[in-house]
Input
Amino acid sequence: MDFEESTVRTDRQVQWDEKKKLWYFSKQKYNTFRTIDMDPECMNLLRREREKQIKAKDYYADLYTINYVNENRQLNTTGDGNSVSLINLRENDEFIVPGTMQHTSGIIHHKLNYPEFDFHSLRHTHATMLAENDAPPKYLQERVGHKNLEITMRFYLHLTEKMKEKGSGVLQRMFPPDENIKQQKKEFFGKKRVRR
Output
């Protein structure tokens, strides 16, 4: 996170190794390293979280968990490797695993009976809201980290009512009705026709 520039850089992801029973860092899908800009409110929230982490480190002292990454890119709390500051942490610095959000999504999907909601729904909604507010497609592609623009257009840009209204408005501005033609139509259709 760069608080001065209001950006977040993503260059790796955390994966679970079932055989070794540990978390490790891997390259992102398609090697899509990117830096995305964040809105001021989101950056303020991240800044507050970072400040809470710093205070919690003092509060928990020796009980505070410190995360490390070793030469095999494995995440650990044993002191093997270099310390790393993660974003998704519990108050005592324990890593909040991705399954936490997947579990929450599963509850919304199954128990609260929203079958259309899944783990990626927030990502889809974010991209669609940006598109509805005229964010350029290339910006969306880079923000969500797709290899090419076609994927972004196919999976993330669903035609919404707001988009339809905007499109209709563009058409009307491009081809405004000519007042003379409107008057001629009114006169033509306003006359009573005589049948023979």
